[in-house]
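Hey team,

Filing this mostly as a record. A colleague (T.K.) asked me to run one chain through the structure pipeline before their review meeting, and I want the input and output archived in the tracker in case anyone asks later how it was produced. No errors, nothing strange. Just documentation.

Input sequence:
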Amino acid sequence: MHEAGDITMRVLVAEDEEILAELVATGLRRAGFAVDTVYSGDAALAYLGLHDYDVVVLDRDLPRVHGDDVARRLVASGSRTRILMLTASGSMEDRVAGLDLGADDYVSKPFEFPELVSRVRALRRRSARPVPPQLERHGIRLDTVRRSALRDGRELDLSPKEFTVLQLLLEADGGTVSAEELLERAWDANADPFTGAVRVCMSKLRAKLGEPALIRTVQGVGYAL
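Output structure:
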């Protein structure tokens, strides 16, 4: 059961122990998040400059640029990305130091994985604008808590990606959503933006919604409901 809007959530995992980084990333992906991994502080800063992440899981002892400096720069830039600091030490001084740098939360190693996921979720709720539990337009009703979708009372069997795309279109309230924004919020950085992933997802979604057609393609701009 995903929390409302989980699937659109982007997380950066910055951890120099590659095996741990990949384990964390795999677990977060299973929880429905779009995840990228980096193994150094300079790479973390590069990715944070490129993409709009909801949360960064930031190891404190990163090579090349220390995790503390990554946190300082992120906070100084006015970013809305929330910081979950990972540290090898559970000492009170370390926790206070991390929070003083602008970290939003703190987990010391070794940690229990479900706790990490729930803390990431909690931070996401702080960073994102709240999604109403029900979204409705043109006979489509989306329940973002139960993650169910209906059209004129008929249940729609949507994949997580299709659900997210439909949710983003409904949230736009008649406005146009660009393919880039859909890619940014519903796919992770490994998705090739030139594969027409959005177009393929959109054609499947249109087929499932049925007639009369509801999603308009606005040439050169994006999609609108």
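Quick notes for T.K.: The domain at 134-224 is CATH 1.10.10.10 (Arc Repressor Mutant, subunit A). The first strand starts at residue 10 and ends at 14.
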